[in-house]
Each structure stands twice: as C-alpha cells, then as structure tokens.
Amino acid sequence: MTSRLCVDARKRWGEEQVHIWRRSCDVAPPGGESLKDTLARALPYYVQEIQPCVLRGERVLVAAHGNSLRALIMVLEKLSPEGILKREFGTGVPILANQSANYRLPPGRRPSPEGYPVPRGSWTCGV
C-alpha cells in the first residue's frame, strides 16, 4: 500500500484497519496481498538463492519492498503473527542478520506451526 493509497484508505476504512492490513500476517487489503501471500513468494527465493550464499560465508545485501522484508524477518526472528503486527521497520534503516556458518536446512524443511518452512540457526537481528 503506497503512501497515497494509505491516506485514502485511512479516510475510508480508518487508521486501525489500515494498520491491520499493513502489519498483519493473513489479512489482505482490498485488491492486495497478505503477508502470508508475500511470504509464499519470498521465502522460496530466500532459501534457494540467498541462504546458500550466506552459508558459504558471503556477505549478502537484500534490498526489497517492505512487505517482502517483513515476511522474511517474521521467519528469521521466529515472530508470531501478533509479533510481526507490532514489529516496526524504519524506511531505509538497515537490519543486520547474522547466521551461524554451521546452519543446515533440516531434511524436508520442517514446517512451522503456520505451515512455512522455518530456517533454524543462530540469528541476531537488529538495527
């Protein structure tokens, strides 16, 4: 949801509803996609393309749309749907995530309670 659309949406549906659309896991705005939908697209790419580079010890910079980053952080920080609702990200503020070098995906990528494959390992995330 862009800034202009947010302003219009706040007028039409209210601040609380817009906040839910922008920050919840499985509630999509009209004509948009939920965080769950975004995660279904972003996580396979992360697991197949980014994570192997990290595990080889390469430094990787990920620049993406806020909802894509929010979906990945939800998994990497093991946040609940309620937890991601409260998590704030500053525009243009970097987030550093360090993964242990001995990390390996479990066979079959063990699903989380929400049904998403959850990378396991030692993560520290912060601004």
Please characterize this protein's 3D structure.
This protein has 127 residues and is mainly alpha-helical. The chain has a single domain, classed as Phosphoglycerate mutase-like (Rossmann fold, 3-Layer(aba) Sandwich). The chain is 46% helix and 6% strand. It contains 5 helices and 2 strands. The protein has a two-stranded antiparallel ribbon. It starts with a helix and ends with a strand.
Layout of secondary structure:
Blueprint: H1 3-13, H2 15-23, H3 35-55, H4 66-76, H5 81-86, E1 96-99, E2 123-126
Question: What's this, in brief?
Answer:
The chain is mostly helical and 127 residues long. The protein has helices at residues 3-13, 15-23, 35-55, 66-76, 81-86; strands at 96-99, 123-126. It is elongated, with a radius of gyration of 16 Å.
Distance between the termini: 24 Å
Round the Cα radius of gyration to an integer and report it. 16 Å
CATH topology label: Rossmann fold
Q: Provide the domain count.
A: 1
Mean pLDDT across all amino acids: 75
Task: Please identify which CATH superfamily we are dealing with.
Answer: Phosphoglycerate mutase-like
Question: At the first level of CATH, what is the class?
Answer: Alpha Beta
Strand order of the largest sheet: 1-2
Q: Per CATH, which architecture?
A: 3-Layer(aba) Sandwich
Helix count, per DSSP? 5
Order of helices and strands: HHHHHEE
The amount of helix comes to: 40-55%
Described by strand count, sense and barrel closure, the largest sheet is: 2 strands, antiparallel
The counted number of beta strands is 2
Category from helices, strands and their pairing = mainly alpha
